[in-house]
Amino acid sequence: MPTTRAPRRDATENRAALLAAARVELNLDADATLDTIAVRAGLSRRAVYGHFATRDELLRELITTGATRVATAVSSVDHADPVVRLALIASRLWSEVENIRVMALFAVRGPLKGETAEALAPLRERVAAAIAQGGAAGSVRRDIPVARLARLVEDAALTALTESAREPISGIEGHRLVMLLVLGTVGMDAASAAALIDGHPELTWTDR
Amino acid sequence: MPTTRAPRRDATENRAALLAAARVELNLDADATLDTIAVRAGLSRRAVYGHFATRDELLRELITTGATRVATAVSSVDHADPVVRLALIASRLWSEVENIRVMALFAVRGPLKGETAEALAPLRERVAAAIAQGGAAGSVRRDIPVARLARLVEDAALTALTESAREPISGIEGHRLVMLLVLGTVGMDAASAAALIDGHPELTWTDR
DNA sequence: TTTATCTTGCACATTGATGTGCAAGATAGT
DNA sequence: ACTATCTTGCACATCAATGTGCAAGATAAA
Known about the structure:
The structure is a homodimer. The first copy, chain A, is mainly alpha-helical. Chain A is built from 11 helices and no strands. Chain A has helices spanning 9-28, 34-40, 45-48, 55-75, 82-94, 97-108, 113-119, 121-137, 146-166, 171-185, 190-198. The longest helix of chain A has 21 residues, at 55-75. The relative contact order of chain A is 0.10. At the A-B interface, helix 9, helix 10 and helix 11 of A face helix 9, helix 10 and helix 11 of B. Chain A binds a DNA duplex through helix 1 and helix 3.
């Protein structure tokens, strides 16, 4: 009986490289080819099929791991003030820009729509909860129904992330921009939003 | 010499129907097939080629006519207060939802990127001008460079238009939502934005 | 009614991308 | 060094969508 040997190190590395390449390439072009992705990962298109049965499977993995990262990044957010909490969430999203953009992409388009939206559900819930609480406290606008405002807040964050792809933006600026847009969408004026950010050390940009 | 006869009435109607169908269908699915579009227009796929040489030509026409409509809708906007002007522009965009969405689509994606962006240039300029003026007057935030803020404002408007596709929204509400988001992005708090809208009769919703 | 104009249906060529089979070569585990 | 594991390159099958040619039929203009 031939005892199975351990998987080769380079193989697992290549698998990871493929996922990373897909993330990068899909951020550049939503219709990126398998070949494009493989080449960027330093492999041939044929080799991809040694790691993933189909293109969709690669994307599926990309999405689920991305969703996990985002979920954990956001789950650790906690703060009494719901508005600060929203800013914190925005802040975390910035650190996951590439993942978020890919997921936003497939949440709208293609056969993985359902799964992607589902994977992002926890994020939606946290945002909606913060908005509801903020509305009750009077610190968040009440002229837009909670569910809708939650979607708009997501879009606002996404806008900032997309902007960062259009024109290069530094880490600090991007980080601040996401928070500003989210707070603005929630009904806060620009000056107050800036003050709130500067008044809370946990909202300061830290590189890693 | 055979004097050419006038084009048939149904033919020109069908041409228009094709463009309309494309607009609708592309709003539902960015990757809509020529066949899908033709069927919605009540024609066969083959008939499309009697009106447009290629798929791209159909889209090109859709975009240029759309751009013209948007341009004229926005060009008539004029108001001393730059912020009100922005709200007015937002208001006009709402009346061109479908056109705008299609154009936003092709401004990012596909071979018509360049043309689409170019066709939207006048809109961009007007927004940027209003922002610059508002910044000087102190009624618009100055913590974000004008060009970038102009893009973000466009995105904010687009967000509202997209939201209207996600969940049905009445004309009045949609109209108001676009303005609210634009004003919020420009730095205004929710209450002031609402007050501004309600205080200016030219910002009132009119069905037509 | 006559006739040019449009539409249709079908067959077919083309293109671009995905997915498979297989043999030969490269590489890491043992 | 031996060998399982990966990668490669090429050929090939498949699929969906675009674009063409052509003949027969429908429809509006004259």
